Amino acid sequence: MSKSLEISKKATIDIKPDELRAIMEEYQYDPDIMCDDDERVLKAKRALTKIALPDRIIFCIYLDLGASRKVGELLGVSHSTILKEINRIRKEIIYYIMKDDE
Fold first, then answer.
1. Which residues contact 39 (CB under 8 A, 6 or more apart)?
2. 65-75 pLDDT tens trace
3. CB within 8 A of 34, min separation 6: which ones?
4. Which helix (H) or strand (E) holds 12?
5. Is there a contact between 45 and 33 (Cβ–Cβ < 8 Å)?
6. What's the fold here for domain 3-9+37-101?
7. 29 CB contacts (<8 Å, ≥6 apart)?
8. For residues 18, 52, 27 and 47, what is the CA-based torsion angle, rounded to 10 degrees?
9. DSSP string, 23-51
10. In the beta sheet, which residues pair with residue 4?
């Protein structure tokens, strides 16, 4: 059974809740869990927690699927729209990583 998750007024994701939960947990930052992640990965995960949830979902699905075309098909939008959003989200993540370095 799929759950439809509204990302924006234009797009919804038809994905099983367990699949989405697994994707989100993989990229979640948890300071209480000892992990083997290096400092760069920890900074990226902390930055992910600071961006808006819809952006985080899109970015994590993109990381998991590895292709803007696949994400576009899943969301029902063009891959060029996904690329524009991914680039915007990357800039925001980089901003928070740089801010974390200060």
1. none
2. 889 999 898 88
3. none
4. strand 12-15
5. no
6. Arc Repressor Mutant, subunit A (1.10.10)
7. 42, 45, 46, 48, 49
8. -170
9. HHHHT---TTS-----HHHHHHHHHHHHS
10. 14
| Residues 10/77, Cβ–Cβ less than 8 Å | yes
In this predicted model, what pLDDT tens digit does every residue of 36-80 receive, in sequence order? 667 787 888 888 889 998 898 899 889 888 899 998 988 889 999
SS3 76: coil
> Token match 């990381």: residue?
63
- Domain ranges in the chain? 3-9+37-101
Residue found by looking up tokens 């994400």 in the block: 71
Q: Cα-flanking dihedrals φ and ψ of residue 83, to 5°?
A: -60, -40
In angstroms, rounded to a whole number, what is the distance separating the alpha carbons of residues 102 and 100?
Answer: 6
**How far is the CA of 27 from the CAs of 63, 70, 77, in angstroms?**
9, 19, 24
pTM for the model: 0.65
